[in-house]
Structure formats: C-alpha cells, structure tokens
Amino acid sequence: MTTRLFVCAAIVCALAFVTGCGDTSPAAGAASTSGAESLKIAVIPKGTTHEFWKSIHAGAVKAERELEGVTITWKGPLKEDDRTQQIEVVENFIAQGYSGIVLAPLDSKALARPVGEAVGAGIPVVIIDSGLESDAYTSFVATNNFAGGKAGGERLGALLEGKGKVVMLRYQVGSASTEQREAGFLEAMKAFPEIEIVSSDQYAGATRDSAFSAAQSLVNQHGATIQGVFTPNESSTAGMLLALRDANKAGGAIKHVGFDSSKILIEALEQGDIQGLVVQDPFAMGYLGVKNIVAHLRGEEVAKQIDTPVALVTPENLQEQAMQDLIKPPLDTYLK
Q1: Number of domains making up the chain
Q2: Are 10 and 64 found together in one domain?
Q3: Which residue in 270, 31, 283, 260 sits closest to 149, CA to CA?
Q4: pLDDT at 292
Q5: Do 199 and 114 share a structural domain?
Q6: CATH of the domain at 291
C-alpha cells in the first residue's frame, strides 16, 4: 500500500465524519445512493480472527465508503478450517439474493461448487487471497504467492550462507495460497544444494495453538540439528515463534523466516527472534475486491487477475516508509 493510499484514506475518513457515510447499515447505503443502483455485496473471508482478515475487512470498508449505493456485509467462519461453515455462508448469501460476492476460499476445491451456484444464480463472484479450482469467477485479486514463498526461501538461504539443515512447517491441505508459498520456498531451496530440508510434510493447522503444538514437535525432533525454519502464514509463523522461544532457540540460534505480519510478529522481528517476514497487502485485496465486483455489476470491464504487492521485511529495512505502510494498515480508521 502506498503513502498516497493513506492520504486518500484520511480524506475519506474526514468526509465520513461530516456526512455520516461511515454507517454501513442498509438504510445508510440507500440514503446515499443519489440515484445510483443500490448494491449489496457480501465479503467472505477464510476466518475472522487473524490480523490479516481485519486488514481485508478495513480495505473493503474503504471501498464501500467511496462507492455510492453500495453496502457490504462481512461474514466468515470463525476458524480457517471450517469448510462447511464457509460454504453455508456463501449459500445463505445466494438465498438472500445479494448483488455480488467477494470470497477468499479456504479450500480451492470445496468452494468451487458454491461459487458455481452463485454465478448460476446471476450473482458474480470476485476471488481474493487464495485460488479456486474453477474459472467461474469474475476477477482474482491476490498476492503472487509462489514468488512470495520463493523470496522467503532466498532470504533463509542467504541467512544460512547456503549451508545447513532446515524445516518447513506447512499450513493446511487445500489452501491454495499457502500451498503456492510452500512450493515457492522449495523452488528457492534448489539454488542452495548444501542446504538439506529435513522435514517438509508437517502441517500447522488453522490456529496458533495447533501451529504451536506442531512446531513444538518439529523443534523437539530436529531442534538440535537444524539451523533454519520457514512458515507460510500468520498462524504458523506465530506458533513456530512460540515454540522456538519455548526451546530457547529464538534470537538467531535457529533462523526463522515467516509469512504475513501482526503486532506480535513485527515485535519479534524488531527483537531479532524472527529474521524475515514476507508481507502482503491485505488492505488492498479487500479494497480492490469490492471495487472490482461493483465495477463489474455496473457494466465496466475488470481484469481477470490482479496481483497485489508483496515485500520482504527484515530488521534492516523495517523502518523504511514503504514497509511501514504495509505492516500498519489504517484499521482504526475503518473498523471503529
């Protein structure tokens, strides 16, 4: 996200204060249409607890405030492994006759059917964050996850000076975004023939607690012999951080490169307990997801795929303005 976006956000916030457009209720949306067609947009994340999804929510609200006659509804499963609940959420919005859906599918296969049902019912879908094994969607807004995983692998390889043993703790089966990151990391490791991957088949699961348990097992088994670890999302990175601290292996004893950011992870980067974070722009995903679905509904052409920024944040570049913009989205402006 650029500094310009932050300036625009401040202006929008000021206007919202004066006009009351921060009210996201249907009545408020209808009152501000000025003759524009009223649209109801469902925004469905993979989960609702991680900082990543709060950033997407904030971006979606920013788009809602900028667009006349648009009301968004934010609803998703509590946990990121509840495929059944996310499918039910999609089906409920179809039954309610929403104008469009913005969806981050937590399973690339399981969500293909309900997306097809939505499109068949005349409700277009924009996919964000993670891929879908279908081309029925209108637009796909996401990070180049393979490139992000590769950047993480290159960072870990450089930290180890091309030698040593490492483990990768995967996220969960069916998550297209993290599977691509994991594949990118493994691809990067091919450039370091003297680095041995001693484990790459363990899964963290959907929560920080399950990730902590899985990471503890890996550290207990391999902690005496490994020099590096890679984790592909916020919860797996947080779980591994706790496991390394618990085993007194944080702070560089075992180099740790992870994916995504949160207050805890950025503090760990500052303290030297994490040596690199591949950071996305979820605020932009939420913003562009809503913008694209509304543009499509109003007859405008939208790109089939849009890549959002990804950057490698390290202790060395953490204070640069571009990195600060990415790791500190304006959540309070849009979610309070």
Answers
A1: 2
A2: yes
A3: 260
A4: 98
A5: no
A6: 3.40.50.2300
Say yes or no: 119 and 75 in one domain: yes
Q: Which residue has the tokens 């019912």?
A: 121
Q: Which residues contact 35 (CB under 8 A, 6 or more apart)?
A: none
12 in the same domain as 109: yes
Burial 257-286 (b: 16+ CB within 10 A, else e): bbbbbbebbbebbeeebbbbbbbbbbbbbb
- 189-245, pLDDT tens digit by residue? 999 999 999 999 999 999 999 999 999 999 999 999 999 999 999 999 999 999 999
Residues 149 and 160 placed together within one structural domain of the fold: yes
Cα angle 174-313-272, degrees, rounded to a multiple of 5: 105
The span from the CA of 178 to the CA of 186, in Å, is 12
Is pLDDT of 52 > 60?
A: yes
What is the pLDDT at residue 36? Answer: 59
Distance CA 202, CA 316 (A): 31
pLDDT digit string (tens) for 62-107? 999 999 999 999 999 988 889 999 999 999 999 999 999 999 999 9
The single residue listed with the structure tokens 């998550």 is 175
186 and 219 belong to one structural domain: yes
Helices first, then strands: H and E counts in the chain? 13, 12
Alpha carbons within 13 A on the beta-carbon side of 53:
22
Can you give the pLDDT at residue 26?
35
| Domain assignment of residue 82, given as a range | 3-143+281-309+318-335
